[in-house]
Amino acid sequence: MGTNKSKWVKYKPLLWMIAIPALNIIYGILNEHSSEVRMLITPLDRQIPFLPAFIIPYIVWYPFIALTLLFIFLKDVRVYFKTLLALCLGLLVSYVFYYYFQTTVPRPKVGEGGILNYLVQFIYAHDLPYNCFPSIHVLTSYLMMKGARVLKRWGRLTVQFIGIMIIASTLFVKQHVLADVGMAIIVAECTFLLAKLILPYLMKLKLRVVAIATHEAG
Q: Which residues form the Phosphatidic acid phosphatase type 2/haloperoxidase domain (predicted)?
């Protein structure tokens, strides 16, 4: 019994992924038309075609984030925490942008019939065209690509390929524009660096708290 318990204890850090859906509550609150909504679309964005087939990688994003974090955790717990912390910081930075600089992206008319068109319509219906700058799909996918560098070659290449497809999908299904992609990458780079700097202090703080709790219990 004790052996089984200790076996599962090592997976407890995975529970910190609950922070992602918890923070997404803020996304839902901010995903609405504010008093001033901007459009960052450029002539180059207008040249990018609408390709319903890219809704597949766009939707794959949901399990992609969780599974990539899991594989990173199994390979290197420290990199897992750094990547997850960078992701959470990135979400918070994005929410500040959404609150003070709300943007929208014009959506194309979607054709009738076909599973791909249905999936696009489903996403459009359940995700209002706000909270665009920076793109969370791009931000988080880019962070997974950075964190996945600790994986073996096949795993690293798989994450990179899927990540690139997801980033491209945000443009081809007209959920985002180029400015959203660019800013997401900048935010991801900054939060990944910030997470690298502050993670050691958080680890020391955790050890100190555990030591105090153990001393008081004794």
A: 82-202
Give the side-chain half-sphere CA count within 13 A for 81: 13
Q: Per residue in 33-61, pLDDT tens?
A: 777 899 999 999 999 999 999 999 999 99
What is the tally of structural domains in the chain? 1
pLDDT-derived band at 215, boundaries 50, 70, 90 = very low
In a domain, 20, yes or no: no
In a domain, 93, yes or no: yes
**Domain assignment present for 24:** no
Helices (H), 37-173: 43-47, 55-75, 77-100, 115-126, 136-147, 153-172
Residue 41 falls within a domain, yes or no?
no
* Distance in angstroms (rounded) separating the CA atoms of residues 213 and 85: 24
Is this model's pTM higher than 0.90 or not?
yes
The helix-helix angle for 55-75 and 115-126 (nearest 10°) equals: 70
For residue 121, give Cα distances in angstroms to 72, 106, 158, 173: 33, 14, 28, 10
Domain coverage including residue 148: 52-213
| Structure token digits, residue 189 | 């780079």
Tokens for 132, please give them.
């665009």
Three-state SS string over 94-123 comes to HHHHHHHCCECCCCCCCCCCCHHHHHHHHH
Helix, strand, coil percentages for the chain (3-state, nearest 5): 75, 0, 20
113-131 tens-digit pLDDT = 899 999 999 999 999 999 9
pLDDT > 60? residue 216: no
| Alpha carbon of residue 79 to chain centroid | 16
